[in-house]
Amino acid sequence: MKRGSAFYLGRLLAKARWWVVGLLFCVSLLGGNAGCSGDRTEAVKPVKKAPQAAVSLDYGQVFAGKVVAGEEVTLAPKIPGRVAAVAVDVGDVVRAGQVVLRLEAAEIDAAVRQAEAAVKVAEAGLNQAALGVERAQAALEQAQENYRLALANYERGKALLAAEAISPADFESRFEQPYVNAAGALKTAETAYRQAVDQKERVAPAQVEQARAALAAAKTNAANTQVVAPINGIVAARNVDPGELASPQVPALTLVDIDTVYVEVGVPERVVSRLRVGQEVKVGVEAVRATPFTGEVASISPAADSRTKTFLVKVRLKNPGHPLKPGMFATVSFPPQAKAGSKA
């Protein structure tokens, strides 16, 4: 038992001796390197350069913002009504002029037909007014001829009465009364003619115009049963379904154009004072890719926000394929400011 213990103790001492040797060797290596390094440092001589203005850069130019659509529009029918059909859904691509929603239009279509009939009646009345003028003119000419004859007979009767060739009663019945009747008929014919002309030139045209205006209004109402996309874009929200009531006050659809997007960012006065429209900047959107996008300053607010004391800057980005979506978090890196004055 004692012999075995001595054997194991010898082996442990031998291992310990090798560990100590290795440790001393490493220390000597480190010491040698340090010495060499010191020698090298003393051997290096500084190179004298002519003093010049160096450039120090301020890299505090990265600001957080969000992506917004290049254009966003909300759509609602111009008149209230029940939805007949919605032609698009969220995510659909639409083109300007495309019908995206229709209201039920049976009553409005009936109103259009009624207005069309009223226009035809008014136009017929205008034609009748023209014929009325012709008839009134013929009647007036006849009344004028009758009056001329009656006046001549009246003058002849007065001469006969003055020569006592006829009695007063005979003069009244044969000459005076026919003259009075002819004069009255002439006045009536003149009034009728004036009224016919007024009907043709003023009343009937006004009735036609009124009927046509009513028809135009009915057609406008019919057109307003359709909601048309005003821009090329993508449906971002749909708030109605067929059978539901829609009104001008409640948006039915939201369209966004994201062929071009903007990043809105608040910039402090120390930075905004040296920005300019059209200036190139880098935009990071980690949700899309690691490498930054290149954009340009599209607009700079002339006044600071009263709450944040920052100026709103909008950065424009082309968005082919639409990887950038409204609402995404973004960072904008503005070019650093160069400051001269320090010396190397």
- What number is the mean pLDDT? 84
Task: Based on Cα principal axes, name the global outline.
Answer: elongated
**Rg estimate, integer Å:** 51 Å
List the secondary-structure elements in sequence, H or E.
HEEEEEHHEEEEHEEEEE
Helix content: 40-55%
Structure description:
The protein has helices spanning 2-43, 106-162, 168-223, 269-272; strands spanning 53-58, 62-75, 81-86, 93-94, 99-103, 226-228, 233-238, 245-246, 253-267, 280-284, 293-300, 311-318, 329-333, 337-343. It has 344 residues and is α+β, with helices and mostly antiparallel strands. The protein folds into 3 domains: 1-45; 106-223; 254-343, Beta Barrel (Elongation Factor Tu (Ef-tu), domain 3). The chain has a 6-stranded antiparallel β-barrel with strand order 2-9-12-11-10-13. α2 (106-162) runs antiparallel to α3. The longest helix is centred in the middle third of the chain and has 57 residues, at 106-162. The chain is elongated and about 130 Å long. It starts with a helix and ends with a strand. The model is unreliable at 1-60 and 340-344 (pLDDT under 50).
Short description:
By secondary structure, the protein is α+β, with helices and mostly antiparallel strands. The chain is built from four helices and 14 strands.
Offer a few descriptive terms.
Elongation Factor Tu (Ef-tu), domain 3; 344 residues; four-stranded antiparallel β-sheet; 27% strand; 3 domains; disordered N terminus; elongated; 14 strands; 46% helix
